[in-house]
Specification:
This protein has 3 domains: 81 residues, no CATH class; 116 residues, Periplasmic binding protein-like II (D-Maltodextrin-Binding Protein, domain 2, 3-Layer(aba) Sandwich), CATH 3.40.190.10; 131 residues, D-Maltodextrin-Binding Protein, domain 2 (3-Layer(aba) Sandwich), CATH 3.40.190.10. Helices cover 33% and strands 28% of the residues. The protein is built from 10 helices and 16 strands. The longest helix has 26 residues. The chain is elongated and about 65 Å long.
Length: 343
């Protein structure tokens, strides 16, 4: 809330001089300084925040009391503001969603402040365990070792499912292929399968479309389709894959190219592309990318997205989470290409 920097007084040439430097902080960040200004006199130490010259002991005492009152009032004001702010950290996949939630929430609650930053699910959970954030966003379940560490620190991680992430794999409507297994998808996107005829399609070279490497969608597809959730698997997208800047760019390319295949959030599905039914393996059922299949876990390229708090949400954290799980908050989930957990 506030951090004392330095203060002092000295007598020079029969003149009593004093100075004070007080820095206001919020969550460890400097957000302002308190300066007392009245008949300022240059200080011998150039680093002083300010200097006041007085000639009577009682006058000095009066000024010191006045300065301290200002400092205490300002620190209290910032502390009150701090109570209306929360820190949200974690999953890079969720950071845009989190920021969209925060923006709309603050629009409706201008007295509250919600700061959202990424860094990864592990970073968010680590911050929650260290007490440097109020909410951790995670695209995975908390690990057992993290729970053990949390218990040692007196933290009680509380898991809340706030959205689902489902990716549709799409081709041109004129492409006769309508279903694939995860293994076949991995073969296509790593460049091991290069022609549609290998999959009983036309004799046509496959055009691979992907999001750019800085996209969370790209990372998710690589980890869960190409690498099949195996941390030791180092498969990468084929060198010939076209990295496009947006889901809309993939949708447009697929619509105009009969040989193309790409992936995007289910919110982009239209009649100009055909979403493929996907099976986990050859023995599993092929499932279409629908909200229902993502919710019930049948669609294989999907996962839940979580928020973690320390114990049951209270105060401003609960207020923000109530918004996230409200109809308006879940509409934002859909608008950002995720799947709502509440229909």
């Amino acid at each position: 809330m506030g951090r004392y920097q330095r203060a002092g007084c000295e007598v020079k040439n029969s003149v009593l001089r004093f100075y004070i430097d007080f820095t206001l902080t919020s969550h460890g960040n400097n957000i302002g300084k308190i300066y007392y200004k009245e008949k300022m006199t240059p200080c011998a130490n150039r680093n002083c925040a300010g200097v006041v010259s007085v000639h009577k002991e009682e006058d000095m005492f009066r000024k010191w009391v006045f300065v301290l009152i200002i400092v205490m009032f300002a620190a209290s004001a910032f502390a009150a503001k701090d109570k209306n702010s929360i820190q949200v950290k974690g999953s890079d996949t969720m950071v845009n969603l989190g920021q969209a939630w925060a923006e709309k929430y603050m629009e409706k609650n201008p007295a509250d402040f919600v700061a959202v930053t990424g860094g990864g699910s592990g970073t968010g959970l680590s911050s929650l365990l260290s007490g440097t954030c109020d909410i951790a966003m995670s695209s995975r379940n908390i690990k057992e070792k993290e729970i053990t560490l949390a218990n040692q620190k007196g933290i009680n991680p509380n898991e809340i499912k706030v959205a689902l992430d489902g990716l549709a794999v799409v081709v041109n409507p004129d492409n006769p292929i309508d279903k694939l297994t995860v293994d076949q998808l991995a073969g296509i996107f790593t460049g091991k399968i290069v022609n549609w005829k290998t999959l009983s399609g036309r004799d046509e070279k496959i055009v691979i479309l992907s999001r750019e490497v800085n996209s969370g969608t790209h990372v998710y597809f690589k980890e869960h389709v190409l690498r099949k959730n195996d941390p030791n698997n180092k498969e990468e997208f084929a060198p010939q894959a076209l990295m496009l800047s947006s889901s809309q760019a993939i949708a447009d390319e697929v619509a105009g190219n009969t040989a193309a295949i790409g992936y995007y959030g289910m919110g982009y599905i239209s009649k100009k592309q055909r979403p493929l039914a996907i099976a986990k393996d050859e023995k599993s059922e092929y499932e279409a990318p629908t909200i229902e299949n993502v919710i019930n876990g049948k669609y294989p390229i999907s996962r839940p997205l979580f928020i973690y708090t320390n114990g049951a949400p209270q105060g401003l954290v609960k207020k923000f989470l109530d918004f996230i799980l409200s109809e308006e908050g879940q509409n934002i989930v859909m608008a950002t290409d995720f799947v709502p957990v509440i229909k």
